[in-house]
Structure formats: C-alpha cells, structure tokens
Specification:
This is Rhodanese domain-containing protein. The protein is of the alpha/beta class and about 140 residues long. It is about 50% helix and about 10% strand. The protein folds into two domains: about 1-30; about 35-135, Rhodanese-like domain (Oxidized Rhodanese, domain 1), CATH 3.40.250. The chain has a five-stranded parallel beta sheet. The longest helix has 23 residues, at about 10-35.
C-alpha cells in the first residue's frame, strides 16, 4: 500500500489521468448495462426479426438504402429524426425497433431521442450495416 502512496505522490498527473480513465470506464459500463437501448449483433437482429417481428429502420441515405439494405427494412429520414419528428412511426411504439446506420453512431443518437419520445423496445445494430455485410448476411436492393 505504501508503494501506491509513493507512486501517487511522485506522479500526480499520471495518477489523475488513471483515476479519470477508471471513472469514464465505469460510467460507460454502467450506461450500457442499464440503458433502455440495447446493442445487438447481426445474429441477434435476425432472431429479433424472426421471433419478435421486429421492424428494421435504415437511417442511411437514399442511395445507400437503394443499393443494399436488410430485407424488410424501411428508410428513416435522419434529418426529421434529429428534430424529434417521428411521424409515421407511431405504429412501432410498442413493437421492437432496430435502428441501422453505416457504423452505429448515428443510430445510437436517434435511439436516445426515440426513447425520450416513448418508444419502448429500441435496439441498435452494433457496427451498423458494415457489421451486417461483414457477417456475410443477405441484403436486398431496389426501392
């Protein structure tokens, strides 16, 4: 124990950095563990669609959506979602929803907004569409 005290005394900046990193790590773990929004991998997404009739909402641009998407996915307007305009999605308020974007970052932000608006079962595809494609799972094309 005495060695720790000596280290902290001799290296205060490094000690503060370690403490801050530890707090950030605990906060991140706590937030992900107790969040109402769940991260799912491509296999879990498939199970949610097949077992719970989940709806996939694709948040990528029209060009990307038309070129390649998960079967049954609907296109979601990100600009409207960023303004908390979820018109037309009320029918999914109690149904499982899976948000998909390119990498998962945009989907997480919109998922938080949807949860605040009363959507109950929100999931985000971890890694976005790139993780779906990396897993070699099928996609569909067209409008």
């Amino acid at each position: 124990m005495e060695q720790y005290i000596t280290f902290f005394t001799n290296h205060p900046v490094l000690s503060i950095v370690w403490v801050v990193l530890a707090i950030m790590l605990m906060h991140s773990w706590y937030k992900s563990r107790f969040s109402a929004i769940r991260q799912v991998n491509p296999q879990q997404l498939t199970l949610l669609i097949n077992r719970d009739d989940a709806q996939v909402l694709d948040m990528r641009g029209k060009k990307d959506f038309t070129a390649s998407r998960i079967a049954g996915a609907e296109m979601m307007n990100v600009d409207k979602a960023k303004q908390n305009d979820f018109g037309g999605l009320e029918k999914y308020k109690t149904k499982p929803i899976i948000l998909v974007c390119n990498t998962g970052m945009t989907a997480n932000n919109i998922a938080e907004r949807m949860h605040q608006q009363g959507y109950e079962k929100i999931h985000v595809l971890s890694g976005g569409m790139s993780s779906w494609q990396s897993a070699g799972l099928p996609t569909t094309t067209g409008k």
